[in-house]
Amino acid sequence: MHYADLDEAAQVALLRPVAADGAARLGLSVAEILLTHHGYNTTFRVRDDDGHSHAVRVLTNSHSAPAQLEAQHAWMHAIAREKLVRVPDPVVGPDGASFAVVDGGPLGERATVVAATWLPGADIGTLDLVQAHALGAAMATLHEHAAGWQLPVGTAMPTFDDPLFGDKDLLTGYPMPEPDAALIATALATARPAFTQTSAAGVIPIHGDLHGGNLKWHEGELAVFDFDDSGLGTPALDLAISTFYLRDTLDGAEAALRDGYASVRPLPEVSEDDFEALVASRQVLLANSLLAISTASLRAQAADYLVTSLARLRHWLETGRFARLPS
Which CATH architecture has domain 129-319? Predict the structure, then answer.
């Protein structure tokens, strides 16, 4: 049976030895390995012989090429070294690479594994107002750093100049009623000019996925992890992505996010229509990604999520404001 057709428990059972092998190749001893998250990618907490913990991730659905992984990890390391924002510090293996390739296994001929220092604290999930403010400040700090940071020679980041971030368009041509297909086409066509318009001011490295699932809170301090979606984009896009996840969750959360950002650097200059298009584009990206996902629990949600996505996109096109409530 193909990996994508297995249930969650069977998938994790196959990935565990891959993670252990990858951790060893990165120079880590593996005394204990515990699953922490099986989602877009799969992360294990690995304790070494000295009791130190690392986050070891098998890139089950990631499209990051080696040059992109090295760019992500170089940026993370620079942030960690300068102690600007709490982030995990990537592990560099004996061969000098910040990733390991494991031959064979459930994902085909090769699987990529990365590791980083373990961050204390629990994943935030839904942000409160204090955490939303902290996220805005952290995002602005990352942007301020990125604006003066150079990609190391030989590394690369994708440029986010399209709603699908360069992913294969699976929505166009997906079997659905003609009105729904037309709605997807209209949403893509309406969102694309916002990327062109905002990118005219220039792009910088951005995290690209700042939401509660990629944040930890420990002793009143925010930590940011999962840089797998980072790339070259505009500060407005990063702000819009976080806004997508905050929209219709808690009164004042969006204002707190913006206030936190403005406490560090000026808010990005973007029209209201373009900003709402960037927020809505996240819905298109997520719906498209789920159609290609191999993780069992997420594959099961794909059809229903497409229905929800269509309702939300319809609301945006009709009103000019994206909302998470219609379903």
Answer: Alpha-Beta Complex (3.90)
- Contact present, 322 and 316 (Cβ < 8 Å): yes
Q: Which amino acid is at 193?
A: P
> Could you tell me which of 199, 205, 180, 201 has the C-alpha nearest to residue 74?
205
CA atoms of 290 and 234, how far apart (whole Å): 24
Q: Tens of pLDDT along the chain (327 residues)? A: 688 888 899 999 999 999 999 999 999 999 999 999 988 899 999 999 999 999 999 998 888 899 999 999 999 999 999 999 999 999 999 999 999 999 876 767 688 999 999 999 999 999 999 999 999 999 999 999 999 999 999 999 999 999 999 999 999 989 999 999 999 999 999 999 999 988 878 899 999 999 999 999 999 999 999 999 999 999 999 999 999 999 999 999 999 999 999 999 999 999 999 999 999 999 999 999 988 887 777 778 888 999 999 999 999 999 999 998 755
In 3D, which of 237, 240, 226, 231 has the Cα closest to residue 205? Answer: 231
- What does CATH list as the number for 3-118? 3.30.200.20
Residue 126: enclosing H or E segment and its boundaries?
none
Domain ranges for the chain: 3-118, 129-319
Q: How many helices (H) and strands (E) does the chain have?
A: 9, 10
